Amino acid sequence: MGEYPDRRTHDIPVTEKEIEFFVRVFDNHCLPIFWKPGWIALLDNERWAHARPPFVLQAGETRKLGVMMGNPKDRVGQKFPYHRKGSGSGP
Question: Which GO molecular-function terms appear in the entry (predicted)?
Answer without folding.
Answer: 2-oxoglutarate-dependent dioxygenase activity
